[in-house]
Amino acid sequence: MREILAIIRNERAEQTKAALDSIGVKGVTFINVIGRGKQKGTIRYPDPQGTLKREVSIYIMQQRGLIGNPEDPRYHAPVENELDLGFLSKKMLMIVADDNEVPGIVRAIIQINRSEHKGDGRIFVCPVNDAIRIRTGEHGTKAIV
Q: How far apart are CA 111 and CA 103, in angstroms?
């Protein structure tokens, strides 16, 4: 048995759920998480007039107590079309599956979530020593089917 942990974009959660349903995955847990990776909590966006950047930057600086203090070492003025949010909201999927089902599950997650841009997410596959169904006391693969 393996546990598959996948961190994906929020907007891809429903498509991912549908793809997993279509290949017969029964048990999936979705969790709202925040974090940062290579993109370090920054997002790029189209905003030619800079309106969104100004509004969000002011909000972030207010929250950090940095309004009017660019000398503060924590102050970071975002570059053009980039916002430093610190952490980004994502979804984390948790799936426990038989070893032979893992490649298909991983393929389905990648197929739906790959945009070839920073922030597409990560997948971690970890060994599971045991699983126990609380209601019946069943162990191992019997507990996850």
A: 12
Q: What does the pLDDT read at residue 134?
A: 95
**pLDDT tens column, 90-144:** 899 999 999 999 999 999 999 999 988 778 899 999 999 999 999 999 999 999 8
Looking up tokens 């699983």 gives 131
Q: Where do the CATH 3.30.70.120 domains begin and end in the chain? A: 1-39+88-145
Report the C-alpha gap between 74 and 77 in whole angstroms. 10
Which residues have a Cβ under 8 Å from the Cβ of 100 and sit 6 or more positions away?
Answer: none
| Pairwise CA distance, residues 78 & 134, whole Å | 50
CATH number of 1-39+88-145: 3.30.70.120
How far, in Å, CA of 5 to CA of 106, rounded? 10
Report the alpha-carbon distance of residue 73 to residue 81 in Å, rounded.
Answer: 22
CA distances from 19 to 2, 14, 46, 110, 123 (A): 19, 9, 29, 10, 16
